[in-house]
Amino acid sequence: MGKKKADFEYVEPIGLRVLVRKDDPKRETKGGIALPDAAEIPTITGRIVTISAAVENDDDVPLRQYDKVLFHPKSAIPVDFECDNALFVVPVEDVVAVFRRDANHSD
After folding, report:
1. Residue 1: which pLDDT band, with cuts at 50, 70 and 90?
2. CATH architecture of structural domain 17-23+40-99
3. Buried b or exposed e, range 30-45, using 16+ CB within 10 angstroms
4. Model confidence pLDDT, tens digit, residues 13-55
5. If we measure between CA atoms, which residue out of 39, 67, 43 comes closest to residue 55?
6. Do 95 and 63 meet the contact criterion of CB atoms below 8 Å apart?
7. Most CB contacts within 10 A, which of 41, 62, 82, 102?
């Protein structure tokens, strides 16, 4: 018997939270050294899929949809929405960095 498809179409975070699709874990360093499965790095990168209305309306939070971010997974809540389970609701305070192309760029 197959897995039942979810009845909802999207997930909207509430409060100062964002929905992040985490990047695939790195299995090899830039130098070509293979990492064992047990090697875990406590921070994870990903792309913001959706931001809450509170984040969108807060000028002090420099996060926007599609930003690539580095986040600490301690309070990230996995969303069982897709079979790969790569979506997480992440509190803004656990987003530790945003990757930008231009250091002078401010949205």
Report:
1. very low
2. Roll (2.30)
3. eeeeeeeeeeeeeebb
4. 999 999 999 887 666 666 766 666 655 555 689 999 999 999 9
5. 67
6. yes
7. 62
